[in-house]
Write a structure and sequence with these properties.
Blueprint (H helix, E strand, L loop, with lengths): L3 E6 L5 H6 L1 H6 E7 L3 H11 L5 E3 L2 H8 L3 E4 L6 H10 L3 E4 L7 H14 L3 E3 L7 H11 L6 E9 L14 H18 L3 E9 L11 E8 L4 E7 L12 E6 L2 E5 L5 E6 L9 E4 L12 H15 L7 H20 L3 E2 L3
Parallel strand pairs: 1-2, 1-4, 2-3, 4-5, 5-6, 7-10
Antiparallel strand pairs: 7-11, 8-9, 8-15, 9-10, 11-12, 12-13, 13-14
Bound molecules: nicotinamide-adenine-dinucleotide.
Length: about 350
């Protein structure tokens, strides 16, 4: 199969994950690199040994010159909308980093532009492609817990990034919680309807705004999802995928966000606390769908070749983003807020 010609925009830290991914190396030819800092494009050329590729600070000019099929957007969140709109205007499919956009109106504009152009715009939600979450969803789909009734997640890390996050507004909700909210929709097979959220900046925070938040979501089908998170919590960290407690009609699963599960199912009808027995969550997932950025990119490339819709297509991912923006609005107003796509 011929390789896909792509331009990558935003040559910072995360771009390494895209350029290093096996699926990019095997199936993509990088024909151009763009960054507002030209030195960042040169650093990638030196690091990856690219030859004969176009670099620049102006995306339109590089797209005119290279005419790629695909644009990979690894810019900062506020640049996702203009980058995607330009790429679609040039007839490219786009896969971009999370979060889809910095605002809901921009996200709606991007989804409308993709639809009008007849092109695919998908968002990187790499945590969907890990073995643990795929195995968990398979286990839930087989009815082991009965119907889910509530899901609780906790994200606690002390992360010293430096850079744009130090001064970003609503940093945890906008830049990180999108992963957890998208994971919640994925495992619960439910969408959010409303949220109450409290967000704060702890006194020892090295972030300017909002590294800690707690949120309660009412989901479809009467489900409840709660999130507690902080990027300012040093010691006893959770994984980057959160620690989870999933409660169903028949029992509970604890999941560390990686590949560690503990599941207890009710095993009797009597007693103040009913007896339970442990059940194994088999670590089974489709080989083609495990492995973060690599699998996310592979899935996107498969879809554009087949004309299929990727599972993180903008039309779906906007529902995860809507959870973020409703949580932000709730935090700002102090009120329960509807989650509107
Ligand atoms: N999926 C994940 O697990 C994950 C992890 C980290 C970061 N990210 C996301 O990746 C994106 C980039 O994050 P990062 O950590 O690489 O940031 P970064 O600051 O290291 O890199 C961003 C790059 O984009 C460039 N840039 C900014 N505005 C631009 C514009 N208008 N046009 C072209 N280039 C522009 C910057 O100069 C910089 O080189 C963010 O959306 C972030 O949320 C995702």
């Amino acid at each position: 199969m011929s390789k896909v010609r792509a331009v990558l925009v935003g040559c910072g830290g995360m771009a390494n994950g895209w350029l290093n991914a096996e699926s990019t190396k095997k199936r993509v030819v990088i024909v151009g690199l763009v960054d507002v800092r030209i030195e960042a494009t040169k650093a990638k050329i030196a690091r990856f040994g690219y030859e004969n590729i176009v670099t620049g600070t102006n995306l339109d000019a590089v797209l005119r010159e290279t005419k790629p099929e695909v644009v990979f957007d690894c810019t900062v969140p506020e640049a996702h909308c203009p980058t995607t709109l330009s790429a679609l205007k040039h007839g490219c499919h786009v896969m971009g980093e999370k979060p889809m956009s910095d605002t809901m109106p921009n996200a709606r504009r991007m989804a409308a532009a993709a639809s009008k152009a007849g092109k695919t715009y998908a968002v990187m939600q790499n945590r969907r492609y890990l073995t643990g979450i795929r195995a968990l969803r398979r286990f839930l789909d087989r009815g082991a817990l009965g119907k889910l009734v509530a899901v609780h997640s906790e994200f606690m890390l002390g992360a010293h990034f430096g850079g744009f996050r130090d001064i970003m507004e609503h940093v945890l909700l906008l830049d990180m919680a999108i992963h957890s909210f998208d994971q919640a929709r994925f495992v619960m097979r439910a969408d959010a309807q409303s949220v109450y959220c409290h967000e704060w900046t702890p006194r020892h925070s090295w972030y300017k705004h909002g590294p800690s938040a707690s949120a309660i979501f009412e989901m479809t089908d009467g489900l409840v999802y709660t999130y507690q998170g902080s990027w300012c919590a040093e010691g006893c960290p959770t994984t980057w995928q959160c620690s989870w407690r999933l409660i169903g009609e028949k029992g509970t699963i604890l999941w560390n966000g990686d590949e560690n599960f503990r599941c207890e199912i009710v095993a009797g009808n009597t007693g103040f606390v009913r007896p339970v027995k442990e059940k194994k969550v088999p670590l089974i997932c489709a080989k083609s769908l495990s492995g973060g950025h690599n699998s996310g990119i592979a899935h996107f490339l498969d879809c554009i070749r087949k004309g299929a819709v990727p599972e993180t297509d903008c039309t779906d991912n906007i529902k995860s983003l809507a959870m973020v923006h409703a949580a932000i609005k709730s935090a700002e107003t102090g009120k329960k807020t509807l989650v509107k796509v």
